[in-house]
Amino acid sequence: MPGVKTNEREGTRAVLRHSRMSATKARQVLDLIRGQDADRAAEILALSDREAARVVAKVLASAVANAVHNDGLDAEELFVSACYADEGGTLKRWRPRARGRATRIRKRTCHVTIIVSRMPDERIARRRAERAATASQRSRRVASSRRRRAEAADTARVARAAEQVPEESVDWTTSDAAAEAGEEQAVVEAGAEAEAGAGEEAEDGENADAGAPAEAGSVTEDEASAEEKGE
Fold first, then answer.
1. In this predicted model, what pLDDT tens digit does every residue of 82-111 receive, in sequence order?
2. What class does CATH assign to 9-119?
3. Coil, strand, or helix at residue 15?
4. CA-based nearest residue to 28, from 9, 7, 51
């Protein structure tokens, strides 16, 4: 059973006739976007290096515009249902060659047709779910990034405040009083240590006098009592 003819396919179409390029070059680009979503197909054409991609992108934009303005469809729900390139007329030119001969030059043309249609409901629902999930993930990433930046800024602010204390916040009266009290306490402690050292030296001197031997010619109490008894 034969399939649906090209001119009987459903959808909104845009046709470019007598494009000055060969149908072969156009078909290589059309194969990239066949069956793709309209926005995805536009991205593919924008990133393609082929010259035919620029022409096909214009035809695609025209087809989407026709679907939106003429048929009242949503641009986000469209996809490329069919796209093809037919051969057009050929311009014949001649190039002179050696020995008076000539070679034919064929400047080919083509007719580019792109048909866009509304996606099935299941595909639209899946597409919306994917976009919602992507948007939620992006929002969470943005929120977490902003929270980390805020925390880092607060930490840096606290560190700078701790390092650089303003002079107005210092109570110089209390500080001077504390310094004087500390000096007085140091003087009292120094005097106490000096007195304690002098007392220790005096005790050491007394102990040394008590333990030293009697000098020559000195008379002890026992010797004096013995002399008195002898008398």
1. 999 999 999 999 999 999 999 999 999 999
2. alpha beta
3. strand
4. 51
AA identity, residue 40: R
Q: From CA 180, how far away is CA 145, in angstroms rounded?
A: 53
- CB distance 63 to 15 below 8 Å: no
3-state secondary structure 84-97: EEEEEEEEEEEEEC
DSSP 3-state assignment of 3?
A: coil
Q: What is the DSSP letter of 172?
A: H
Q: What DSSP character marks residue 148? A: H
Angle at the Cα of 111 (from 23 to 32), degrees rounded to 5? Answer: 55
User: Which residues, in sequence order, are CB contacts of 58 under 8 Å at separation 6+?
Assistant: 16
Question: What's this model's pTM, rounded to 2 decimal places?
Answer: 0.58
Closest CA to 26 of 107, 108, 85, 88: 85
List of residues 6+ apart from 6 with CB closer than 8 A? 82, 84, 113
Domain ranges in the chain?
9-119
